[in-house]
Design goal:
Largest sheet: none
Distance between the termini: 50 Å
Number of helices: 3
Oligomer: single chain
Structural class: mainly alpha
Order of helices and strands: HHH
Helix content: over 70%
Number of domains: 1
Number of strands: 0
Shape: elongated
Mean pLDDT: 77
Length: 78
């Protein structure tokens, strides 16, 4: 039981801060610069890329709530 207790204490003691940190990293380091870069490459205003990335994130969240990532699985053509 001490191993289980130490894992709970070390890994799950501050879940809220860990989730917030993950969201900040995902948005600041991955989502926002990528959206701006792709919209500039496409010759669009960077705001369009930001709006599109936000909409995609909302769709993914609702899809996850509705049934999971298996809805996004794409199979190879035979």
């Amino acid at each position: 039981m001490s191993l289980l207790h130490s894992v709970r204490r070390d890994w799950f003691s501050n879940v809220r801060a860990d989730v917030l940190a993950g969201l900040v990293v995902a948005l600041a380091l991955a989502l926002i610069p990528e959206a701006i870069a792709f919209s500039l490459i496409a010759g669009l205003d960077p705001k369009v890329g930001l709006y599109a990335s936000f909409c995609i994130a909302v769709v993914i969240v609702f899809t996850e709530l509705a049934g999971g990532v298996r809805l996004f699985v794409i199979r190879q053509a035979r």
